[in-house]
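On to my pick:
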Amino acid sequence: MEARIAKLEASVGHVERDVSDLRAEARQLRGDMRQDFRITWGGLICVALGLAALMAKGFHWIG
């Protein structure tokens, strides 16, 4: 009985370590996604402003 309990405790230790590793990886991925979103959002804003400037020039709203 003691040997079985020791084996289960060892298995639980491995599971806890794996879960903590997964949590750390999820935090890293969340940070990477946040950075990627900011870069994408910045690019979208630049494109929108560029197109607005081209439209304004095409409609002779600006010189």
